[in-house]
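Posting for a labmate who doesn't have an account.
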Amino acid sequence: MITQKRSLRVLLCIFPLILLVIMLRNYSTNIPFMDQWSFVPVLEKMVQNTLTFHDLWVQHNEHRIFFPKIIMLVLAKLTNWNIYFELTANIVLGVFIYLIVVRSILKTKEIINHWILCILSSFFIFSLVQWENWTWGWQIQIFLNVLSVFVSLYSFCLHKNNKNGYIITIIFGIIATFSFANGVFIWPIILLILTIDPSISIQEKSMKFLVFLSATLLNIFLFFYGYQKLGSLSSGFQPWVFIKYFFAYLGSPIGGFDGRVSIICGGLSFIAYSLIAFKILFKKRFRTDGTLFWFSTSLYPILSGILSAIGRSILGYEQALSSRYTTISNMYWISLITLIIMFEDYFKVTQLFKSKLGTKFKTVVLLIVVVLFILNSGVSYQRWVAHYNDLHPLENELLACNESNFNRALHDINWLKSSLVELNNTKLSIFSFKREKIREVSIPSSSNIDLIRGNLSETSLTKNGCLQISGWVIDAERNAPVSRVVAAINNEIIMTSSMTVERPDIIAHFNNPNLLKSGWWLEISGAFLPIGISKIDLYGVRDNKKYFKFGTVNIQVEDSETIFAPE
């Protein structure tokens, strides 16, 4: 019975992670999205061995994402910038966040029922409500920031008797600061906790305060040295707008995408937090290592919410509901729920106060939270799938000539198009197939190039200089279909096509129903073709990745929009 109960608890802990992995497996793409396109010049410098420290240090918007850039560069180097590996890194960071939270729960002496918090933390940390961060490799910065904040504060509050605790605090404080701009708040939080911690002697506190004050000033100086101030969105401080934005920011993990519900959740929870914070700040007996840790981890998202409200409340409180923010505001709910449970258990043990939260009231509150969480997860699922359906077609369209949907990946189409040329030249991301080596073998084939469209005559031009070639091919030696067709110039792959075109005529001719999808279609933008006269060799590819040539097309390219057949 005990084993079954334990197994159920473990299953509940890992269920959100399993669901998240399934979602990523089915609804993720290998397409750079929005800010990721600004990373292309850095990748190009990496390939050309011209990368400098300044490229890593320079701010992105209001952030200095030094450490996330290093991680993304390493992943890009190892995987030819395969976005799926960045998404995997987000999952790994999420798992580490969960592990440090669980470790903190087990380390907190005032917590009696560990399981309920471990289960709730899992549902928050792996929540689908933060779907934008899970589907966007660029958001490594937020997950790394949250992980670093937790590790830094854990080492400072719950591991301070270890001689390496404060060193770890400073190291991960630095990582938090230079992963996401909000990380700067880690330093004043540490100084506050150090000041009010009653377990440290005045002499020891003075020495440590000097060390952490120096670390604080140094990090703030480095962060703001050469800082470029961005244009302000503010048009004057509006207190009521600020308050609504702030409460919506805090309440969004529970209230989800309903602004009014999020404001109510954020407001009521902040009242509860304020009552607990008052006791911690002004009642010395409540300042244990555990209460100080969870107080500090809840203070970080509160300060982040204040900063966001100052800079962005002019956009309306609806902007605070963005799923990108919930990874940080999740910290608030995990910490607040832990503090509420801690104080209730503490009061019962010491018999200082009687709990004011009746069983029925707690049940109703918990039921409301669970229902809201489930509803918001359903909405998040729908938005996640819609986002996938928007981006997934671009895996082929970005390689071709149809630009009608390019703005789904980036609003600045010209920047995206120039970035595509750079990726093509460096053979990264969706162009990584160009790194594949052609292993040609001599085997018989049956094939035909049915149509060559584009500007291959001297008098006709297609839109944007687009070369389109189609036909059919089979592996005649095995009387079997091929896996794909590739086009190559000088033995270097320039484009690839899956066998997606159905050809009933081929079935009839060869009397083989397995040859239905023996047709292929290639579209090549002039921007991805070399200037001058070229010979495009067409290859069929067997399942064992062996190539056989079945056709050739001669072209001459004058510029990205002028392609014709050479005389």
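Reply:
Got it, the structure tokens are right above this. Residues 437-564 form a domain with the Immunoglobulin-like fold (CATH 2.60.40.10).
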